[in-house]
């Protein structure tokens, strides 16, 4: 029997009751995540992309058991992930860690960097005082920070250094799974490259598995083996990173990839989407993308497409994925 | 004017070839300095910036946060407030506007030079309807009557691609999406029929598909109305897509400027080359990113000489003694680097060279 995947999620959903804008009575159901399946093998990196409000960050929190789920189940290395803080949940916390977007918000301004990196060891009662100290210094070195940084406070560091500290804190428990939620969005270009390279190096050395969440397709391509594209709480396409970006199958992925700004000289054809994404309170019936889709047919308005495997090992949630792929092939 | 005025680059250098006179420039910035009062001393953030914008051209300004790209335009419009000390001269359409009083500037702001800011939600007034805010510009700057302004505001909303412009007219900013608010901002900027539109990170707060819509709109109205557009952005891709000419800023100075092709295909300055090598691509072979080592120095703690010297792979003794000035390396292409051009090029492999 083969080992179970490091992370498996089935039919994840998270709905919130919200008040209807402008109305006093009754409530609406906001479907932040609505039926997401994920499988992530050990040592691999899955990039989760999509626009704001599509449910990327909620998916991250559900996967880590940091939020109650409406439905669905999650397993980490075959073990079910609880959402209530208990003994099993606590033990699981050591094996899965989260890196946030804003490093300054994730760090305590009053504590030294060294203490904050050490804190997870104290919480989980790991090692002696000397062990902890040695481990903090070793890890700070691993993320490219000198030992002098340990005695400093977050405000004394640059944005890139702070993100390294957050990363060191996430890694000190030697987790199997690291969920990075927009880890480079708040950083400048030259610093983004430093952090992306660091993530790649650490993965090679320590064999981490990453769930890398970002709206930046270029950064996701750089680091991911596989990419999943989300739209209004559901995965609409998933497949190997290179293939998916070169020949996107779902009409939404096509628009998303073509929207990445680039020089006019590269000659890519821009697919402009009309309007804004619908609100997750009023998800259109059938395929959620149909009001903005240039291929939409009657069937798309009534029947919700499932994520179906395609010939090239990709999975696309579109009734007409094959026809669209054939059309694109003919056009090229 | 169809062809981009590449000669304007030379004019900005103060280069001794008067092929195109400075009178042709729409906006001419000379030795612009800005310092903020910080406690007992002043913190200089702009160090003598020279720049010109020709009528109808599209200029991109790129650089990392804190390099002074936004401050430059706030200083030009004198919107920096009293803690800022601004020096140098700014002339617009042949008139020196840097010594005008605040009242005279009001006639320029919004009318001749309009500015779109990064976050439309905080730039719009939350207690007035979108329609009223656009109409206000028409009444103030164009002397329109209330009824005429209302009709014109609806036309403007149509022009920026707001579907059912009439229904948006009576809505408040919080009722609309970020993309829709940014369109309303653009409509408001167009209301004064400006000669120069400054877009300061106009799409940074927006999603990528909405960003594509807004960039498309900016390009289209710039082409249709023939106004000059300055696009300030940290995103090289955004600038490459919209602009014909690019200026790269580092630590309060322009370190390189030239046509978009010059900057992306033939970058000279090690910083420009570093920025390009640090960016991941969407196509082509996946390569390891080359970060620029170190960090941007703080405004009050610039190293002597070239501010990029501590991070530069091709640094030598001369770099640490004096600040390099912009010098032309080709027609319309100027670089502030003391090293010989060949040496600079060899110092860092081109973005695609390393597989």
Could you please describe the fold and organization of this structure?
The complex is a heterodimer of chains A (332) and B (355). Chain A contains 12 helices and 12 strands. Chain A is globular. By secondary structure, chain A is of the alpha/beta class. In chain A, helix 6 packs parallel to helix 7 (189-206). The longest helix of chain A is centred in the middle third of the chain and has 18 residues, at 189-206. In chain A, the strands form 2 sheets. Chain A has an 8-stranded mixed beta sheet, with helices on both faces. With 355 residues, chain B is of the alpha/beta class. Chain B folds into 2 domains: 1-112 and 194-210 and 226-355, Rossmann fold (3-Layer(aba) Sandwich); 123-193, no CATH class. Helices cover 33% and strands 21% of the residues of chain B. Chain B has 13 helices and 12 strands. Chain B has helices spanning 8-13, 69-76, 102-108, 120-123, 130-142, 146-159, 165-169, 178-191, 208-225, 236-242, 260-265, 270-278, 341-347; strands spanning 27-38, 41-53, 58-62, 84-92, 95-96, 113-116, 196-200, 228-233, 245-250, 253-259, 327-330, 333-335. Chain B has an 8-stranded mixed beta sheet with strand order 6-7-8-3-9-10-12-11, with helices on both faces. Chain B has a 4-stranded antiparallel beta sheet with strand order 2-1-4-5. In chain B, helix 6 crosses helix 8. Chain B is globular and about 65 Å long. Chain A binds chain B through residues 51-52, 158, 160-161, 188-194, 196-197, 200, 215, 217-219, 221-222, 242, 245-246, 255-266, 270, 272-273, 275-277, and chain B through 64-65, 163, 177, 179-180, 207-213, 215-216, 234-238, 240-241, 260-261, 264, 274-275, 278-283, 286, 288-292, 295-296.
């Amino acid at each position: 029997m083969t080992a179970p995947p490091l992370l498996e999620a089935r039919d994840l959903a998270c709905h919130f009751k919200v008040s209807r804008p402008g109305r006093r009575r009754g409530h609406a159901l906001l479907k932040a995540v609505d039926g997401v399946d994920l499988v992530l093998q050990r040592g691999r990196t899955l990039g989760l992309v999509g626009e704001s409000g599509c449910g990327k960050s909620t998916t991250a929190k559900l996967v880590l058991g940091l939020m109650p789920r409406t439905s669905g189940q999650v397993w980490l290395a075959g073990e079910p992930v609880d959402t209530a803080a208990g003994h099993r949940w606590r033990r699981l916390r050591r094996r899965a860690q989260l890196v946030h977007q804003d490093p300054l918000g994730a760090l305590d301004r009053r504590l030294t960097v060294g203490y904050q990196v050490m804190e997870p060891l104290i919480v989980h009662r790991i090692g002696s005082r000397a062990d902890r100290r040695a481990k903090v210094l070793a890890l700070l070195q691993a993320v490219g920070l000198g030992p002098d940084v340990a005695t400093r406070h977050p405000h004394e560091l640059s944005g890139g250094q702070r993100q390294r500290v957050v990363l060191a804190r996430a890694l000190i428990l030697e987790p199997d799974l690291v969920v990075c939620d927009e880890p480079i969005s708040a950083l400048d270009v030259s610093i983004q490259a430093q952090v992306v390279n660091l993530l790649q190096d650490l993965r090679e050395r320590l064999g981490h598995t990453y769930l890398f969440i970002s709206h930046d397709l270029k950064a996701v391509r750089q680091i991911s083996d596989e990419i999943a594209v989300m739209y209004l709480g559901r995965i609409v396409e998933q497949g190997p990173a290179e293939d998916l970006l070169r020949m996107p199958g779902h009409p939404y992925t096509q628009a998303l990839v073509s929207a990445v700004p680039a020089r006019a000289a590269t000659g890519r054809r821009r697919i402009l989407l009309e309007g804004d994404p619908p609100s997750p309170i009023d998800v259109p019936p059938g395929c959620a993308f149909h009001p903005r889709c240039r291929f939409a047919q009657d069937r798309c308005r009534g029947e919700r497409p499932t994520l179906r495997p395609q010939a090239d090992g990709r999975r696309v949630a579109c009734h007409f994925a094959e026809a669209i792929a054939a059309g694109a092939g003919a056009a090229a | 004017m169809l062809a981009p005025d590449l000669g304007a680059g030379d004019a900005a250098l103060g280069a001794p070839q008067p092929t195109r006179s400075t009178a042709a420039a729409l906006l001419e910035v000379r030795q612009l300095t800005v310092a903020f009062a910080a406690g007992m001393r002043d913190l200089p953030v702009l160090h003598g910036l020279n720049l010109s914008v020709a009528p109808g051209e599209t200029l991109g300004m790129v650089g990392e946060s804190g390099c002074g790209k936004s401050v430059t335009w706030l200083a030009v419009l004198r919107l920096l407030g009293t803690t800022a000390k601004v020096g140098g001269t700014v002339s617009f359409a042949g008139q020196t506007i840097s010594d005008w009083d605040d009242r005279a500037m009001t006639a320029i702001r919004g009318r001749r030079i309009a500015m779109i800011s990064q976050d439309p939600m905080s730039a719009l007034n939350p207690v007035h309807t979108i329609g009223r805010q656009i109409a206000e510009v028409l009444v103030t700057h164009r002397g329109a009557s209330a009824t005429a302004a209302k009709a014109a505001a609806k036309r403007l909303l149509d022009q920026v691609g707001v579907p059912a412009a009439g229904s948006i007219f009576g809505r408040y900013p919080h009722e609309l999406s970020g993309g829709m608010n940014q369109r309303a901002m653009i409509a408001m900027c167009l209301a004064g029929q400006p000669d120069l539109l400054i877009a300061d990170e106009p799409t940074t707060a927006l999603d990528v598909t909405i960003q594509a819509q807004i960039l498309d709109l900016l390009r289209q109205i710039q082409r249709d109305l023939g106004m000059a557009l300055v696009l300030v952005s940290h995103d090289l891709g955004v600038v490459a897509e919209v602009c014909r000419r690019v200026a790269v800023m580092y630590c309060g100075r322009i370190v390189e400027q030239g046509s978009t092709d010059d900057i992306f295909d033939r970058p000279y300055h090690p910083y420009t080359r570093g920025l390009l090598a640090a960016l991941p691509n969407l196509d082509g072979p996946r390569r390891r990113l080359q970060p620029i080592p170190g960090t941007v120095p703080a405004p009050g703690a610039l190293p002597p000489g070239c501010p990029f010297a501590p991070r530069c792979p091709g640094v030598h003794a001369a770099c640490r003694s004096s600040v390099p000035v912009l010098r032309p390396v080709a027609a319309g292409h100027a670089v502030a680097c003391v090293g010989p051009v060949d040496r600079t090029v060899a110092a860092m492999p081109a973005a695609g060279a390393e597989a």
